[in-house]
Design brief:
Blueprint (H helix, E strand, L loop, with lengths): L8 E4 L3 H12 L4 E5 L2 H7 L5 E4 L5 H6 L7 E4 L5 H14 L3 E5 L3 H10 L3 E3 L1 H12 L4 E6 L4 E7 L7 E2 H4 L1 H5 L2 E6 L6 E2 L5 E2 L4 E7 H9 L2
Parallel strand pairs: 1-2, 1-4, 2-3, 4-5, 5-6
Antiparallel strand pairs: 7-8, 8-13, 9-12, 10-11, 10-13
Helix pairs in contact: 4-5
The structure holds adenosine-5'-diphosphate.
Length: 220
């Protein structure tokens, strides 16, 4: 039966990446139609997703029959078979799917996907590699960079911020970053305020331009 709900998503390719996307979408309450050529994977996912179909996603007639011309969002997570990945994006584009996401295995694959009609191209390996680089030294406990050079990170409070309030340490003036929240051991996360008092061991959630966030975390 075709999936026509506006918040339904089709995930094509149930490898590690596609499987993780599909599972998270289900947890977030969306309807998920998944398509894979591999019978074993279809079997494995059958009772965990809304619909799982064994089909070749490069076949636009088959995709139309599955109702994909009515679906709002598609995630193409075919990695190793670049030809299949590109032909699938092309088929979805021809069916008029308004929001196509595709996983790229490399820069050139990504460029081809963009030219073929993918609206969003993700590079999970490159993105994760960059994130690990930020985390590996232990200066940051978490790091998230937005496209426009803006980042959020979790880091220990530096010496100069200890045993005073945020307004006293004046980190925004001195370092160009904003403390968004504070996490103290055995306590809930709290939103940072001017009169929030920082103790040794406190973890700060900070935001600001990526280079300034990186410099600030390096102080610890
Ligand atoms: P990952 O690295 O995330 O595991 P893979 O590239 O290994 O990604 O997995 C891609 C998945 O996409 C595989 O399960 C494969 O069977 C499926 N797949 C490949 N080609 C097609 C296609 N034409 N139609 C549907 N599914 C496909």
């Amino acid at each position: 039966k075709p999936v026509t709900h506006s918040d339904s998503v089709v995930v094509i390719g149930l490898g590690r990446f596609g499987g993780a996307v599909a599972e998270s979408l289900m947890r977030l309450g969306h309807e998920v139609l998944a398509i894979d050529t591999n019978a074993e994977l279809v079997q494995k996912w059958a009772d965990r997703l809304t619909h799982v179909v064994q089909a070749d996603a490069t076949d636009s007639d088959a995709m139309r029959q599955l109702g994909l011309n009515h679906i709002e969002h598609a995630v193409v997570s075919i990695g190793s078979d670049i030809e299949a990945s590109v032909l699938t994006v092309l088929a979805l584009e021809e069916l008029g799917v308004p929001d196509i996401w595709a996983k790229a295995t490399g820069t050139r694959h990504g460029l081809i996907l963009e030219r073929t009609g993918a609206h969003h191209v993700v590079h999970p390996e490159a993105a994760m590699g960059e994130r690990v680089a930020h985390l590996v030294t232990g200066k940051m406990m978490d790091f998230l960079e937005f496209e426009d050079g803006f980042a959020i990170a979790k880091t220990k409070a530096p010496e100069e911020a200890l045993e005073k309030t945020l307004s006293e340490s004046n980190l925004r003036q001195k370092h160009g970053i904003t403390v968004v929240g504070i996490k103290r051991r055995h306590a809930d996360f709290i939103y940072a305020q001017a009169d929030s008092y920082i103790e040794p061991g406190d973890i700060l959630v900070i935001s600001g331009p990526t280079d300034l966030v990186e410099k600030f975390a390096a102080l610890t």
